[in-house]
Design a protein that fits this description.
- The protein is mainly alpha-helical and 160 residues long.
- Helices cover 72% and strands 6% of the residues.
- The protein has a two-stranded antiparallel sheet with strand order 1-2.
- A hairpin with a 7-residue loop joins strand 1 and strand 2 (93-97).
- The radius of gyration is 20 Å and the shape is flat.
Length: 160
Protein backbone atom coordinates (compact mmCIF):
# COMPACT_ATOMS: atom_id res chain seq x y z
CA UNK A 1 0.00 0.00 0.00
CA UNK A 2 1.29 3.48 -0.89
CA UNK A 3 1.44 6.00 1.94
CA UNK A 4 -0.26 9.41 1.66
CA UNK A 5 3.14 11.13 1.82
CA UNK A 6 4.37 9.15 -1.17
CA UNK A 7 1.24 9.99 -3.16
CA UNK A 8 1.63 13.68 -2.34
CA UNK A 9 5.29 13.57 -3.41
CA UNK A 10 4.22 11.87 -6.64
CA UNK A 11 1.65 14.62 -7.26
CA UNK A 12 4.28 17.35 -6.76
CA UNK A 13 6.72 15.55 -9.04
CA UNK A 14 4.05 14.99 -11.67
CA UNK A 15 3.07 18.68 -11.75
CA UNK A 16 6.73 19.74 -11.83
CA UNK A 17 7.37 17.43 -14.78
CA UNK A 18 4.24 18.60 -16.62
CA UNK A 19 5.52 22.17 -16.37
CA UNK A 20 8.94 21.10 -17.68
CA UNK A 21 7.39 19.17 -20.57
CA UNK A 22 5.26 22.12 -21.65
CA UNK A 23 8.32 24.38 -21.52
CA UNK A 24 10.37 21.90 -23.55
CA UNK A 25 7.62 21.45 -26.13
CA UNK A 26 7.14 25.18 -26.54
CA UNK A 27 10.90 25.79 -26.58
CA UNK A 28 11.12 23.57 -29.67
CA UNK A 29 8.27 25.49 -31.32
CA UNK A 30 9.69 28.90 -30.41
CA UNK A 31 13.42 28.47 -30.91
CA UNK A 32 13.26 29.36 -34.61
CA UNK A 33 11.64 32.66 -33.66
CA UNK A 34 14.16 33.34 -30.88
CA UNK A 35 11.38 33.57 -28.31
CA UNK A 36 11.25 32.20 -24.79
CA UNK A 37 8.12 30.64 -23.36
CA UNK A 38 7.54 33.70 -21.16
CA UNK A 39 7.96 36.00 -24.16
CA UNK A 40 5.42 33.89 -26.06
CA UNK A 41 2.94 34.01 -23.18
CA UNK A 42 3.34 37.80 -22.95
CA UNK A 43 2.76 38.14 -26.68
CA UNK A 44 -0.28 35.88 -26.46
CA UNK A 45 -1.89 38.08 -23.81
CA UNK A 46 -1.21 41.21 -25.85
CA UNK A 47 -2.48 39.53 -29.02
CA UNK A 48 -5.76 38.52 -27.37
CA UNK A 49 -6.32 41.98 -25.92
CA UNK A 50 -5.05 43.86 -29.02
CA UNK A 51 -3.03 46.05 -26.66
CA UNK A 52 -2.12 45.74 -23.00
CA UNK A 53 -0.24 47.46 -20.22
CA UNK A 54 2.61 45.74 -18.42
CA UNK A 55 0.34 45.53 -15.38
CA UNK A 56 -2.28 43.59 -17.42
CA UNK A 57 0.31 41.01 -18.44
CA UNK A 58 1.58 40.73 -14.87
CA UNK A 59 -1.94 40.06 -13.58
CA UNK A 60 -2.60 37.36 -16.17
CA UNK A 61 0.74 35.61 -15.56
CA UNK A 62 0.81 36.36 -11.83
CA UNK A 63 4.27 37.91 -12.19
CA UNK A 64 5.72 41.16 -10.89
CA UNK A 65 6.77 44.03 -13.12
CA UNK A 66 10.37 43.38 -12.01
CA UNK A 67 10.20 39.98 -13.70
CA UNK A 68 8.31 41.16 -16.78
CA UNK A 69 10.09 44.43 -17.58
CA UNK A 70 13.25 42.82 -19.03
CA UNK A 71 11.12 40.31 -20.97
CA UNK A 72 9.04 43.09 -22.51
CA UNK A 73 12.10 45.25 -23.23
CA UNK A 74 13.68 42.38 -25.16
CA UNK A 75 10.47 42.02 -27.19
CA UNK A 76 10.52 45.75 -27.93
CA UNK A 77 14.21 45.58 -28.92
CA UNK A 78 13.50 42.59 -31.19
CA UNK A 79 10.67 44.66 -32.75
CA UNK A 80 7.95 42.23 -31.69
CA UNK A 81 6.26 44.95 -29.66
CA UNK A 82 5.74 48.66 -29.93
CA UNK A 83 4.84 51.03 -27.13
CA UNK A 84 1.78 53.15 -27.83
CA UNK A 85 0.92 56.13 -25.60
CA UNK A 86 -2.57 56.18 -24.12
CA UNK A 87 -4.90 58.72 -25.66
CA UNK A 88 -6.12 59.68 -22.18
CA UNK A 89 -2.75 59.88 -20.40
CA UNK A 90 0.44 60.14 -22.47
CA UNK A 91 2.46 58.83 -19.50
CA UNK A 92 0.68 55.47 -19.79
CA UNK A 93 2.10 53.17 -22.46
CA UNK A 94 0.27 50.27 -24.05
CA UNK A 95 2.07 47.38 -25.67
CA UNK A 96 0.98 46.23 -29.08
CA UNK A 97 2.34 43.60 -31.46
CA UNK A 98 4.06 45.34 -34.35
CA UNK A 99 2.32 45.01 -37.70
CA UNK A 100 5.39 43.34 -39.23
CA UNK A 101 5.40 40.62 -36.54
CA UNK A 102 1.63 40.00 -36.39
CA UNK A 103 1.66 37.48 -39.30
CA UNK A 104 4.68 35.75 -37.76
CA UNK A 105 2.90 35.45 -34.43
CA UNK A 106 -0.20 34.11 -36.16
CA UNK A 107 2.02 31.45 -37.77
CA UNK A 108 3.31 30.54 -34.29
CA UNK A 109 -0.30 30.26 -33.11
CA UNK A 110 -1.05 27.84 -35.94
CA UNK A 111 1.99 25.74 -34.93
CA UNK A 112 0.73 25.74 -31.33
CA UNK A 113 -2.75 24.72 -32.53
CA UNK A 114 -1.28 21.63 -34.20
CA UNK A 115 0.43 20.62 -30.95
CA UNK A 116 -2.71 21.41 -28.94
CA UNK A 117 -4.82 19.25 -31.24
CA UNK A 118 -2.33 16.37 -30.92
CA UNK A 119 -2.54 16.64 -27.13
CA UNK A 120 -6.34 16.66 -27.19
CA UNK A 121 -6.45 13.56 -29.39
CA UNK A 122 -3.85 11.71 -27.28
CA UNK A 123 -5.40 12.67 -23.94
CA UNK A 124 -8.11 10.71 -22.21
CA UNK A 125 -9.71 13.93 -20.91
CA UNK A 126 -11.12 17.01 -22.54
CA UNK A 127 -9.10 20.19 -22.43
CA UNK A 128 -11.91 21.80 -20.44
CA UNK A 129 -11.71 19.16 -17.71
CA UNK A 130 -7.91 19.40 -17.59
CA UNK A 131 -8.11 23.19 -17.24
CA UNK A 132 -10.86 22.96 -14.61
CA UNK A 133 -8.89 20.47 -12.51
CA UNK A 134 -5.69 22.49 -12.85
CA UNK A 135 -7.42 25.77 -11.96
CA UNK A 136 -9.00 24.13 -8.93
CA UNK A 137 -5.60 22.91 -7.75
CA UNK A 138 -4.05 26.34 -8.41
CA UNK A 139 -6.82 28.04 -6.43
CA UNK A 140 -6.22 25.71 -3.48
CA UNK A 141 -2.47 26.26 -3.62
CA UNK A 142 -2.85 30.08 -3.77
CA UNK A 143 -5.16 29.98 -0.74
CA UNK A 144 -2.65 27.84 1.15
CA UNK A 145 0.19 30.24 0.29
CA UNK A 146 -1.85 33.19 1.58
CA UNK A 147 -2.73 31.29 4.74
CA UNK A 148 0.89 30.33 5.39
CA UNK A 149 2.08 33.89 4.71
CA UNK A 150 -0.48 35.23 7.19
CA UNK A 151 0.66 32.73 9.82
CA UNK A 152 4.28 33.74 9.31
CA UNK A 153 3.40 37.44 9.61
CA UNK A 154 1.43 36.75 12.80
CA UNK A 155 4.38 34.83 14.25
CA UNK A 156 6.78 37.66 13.42
CA UNK A 157 4.42 40.25 14.93
CA UNK A 158 4.04 38.12 18.09
CA UNK A 159 7.83 37.94 18.46
CA UNK A 160 8.17 41.73 18.19
Amino acid sequence: MIKKEQLYDELCLSIYNTNRYFHRLYAELLEGYELSYLQYMSLLIIYKKEKAKLMDIGEELELSSNTLTPVIERLVNKEWLIKVPSELDKRVKYLKISESKRPVFEHILSDVAVVRDELVVASEKSVISMITENESLNKTLRAMILSHNNKIEEKINDEL
